[in-house]
Write a structure and sequence with these properties.
This protein has 54 residues and is mainly alpha-helical. It contains three helices and two strands. Strands 1-2 form a two-stranded parallel ribbon.
Length: 54
């Protein structure tokens, strides 16, 4: 499955850093709403926090 970013939130997605956009796209997620985008960003933060604690 390939990642998808709905045109309605593309501008918000494009405002993110290249590293963050790449991290999102690597997850093969479907982003239809701003809530989907926020959810995947929260997931990435949680993963980073758990990695930092090791």
């Amino acid at each position: 499955m390939a990642s998808y970013v709905d045109p309605s939130i593309r501008e918000k997605f494009e405002s993110l850093s290249i590293n963050l956009k790449n991290a999102i796209l690597e997850k093969d997620v479907q982003l239809h709403t701003i809530h989907d985008l926020i959810g995947v960003l929260e997931e990435i933060v949680a993963e980073q926090e758990s990695t930092a604690k090791r």
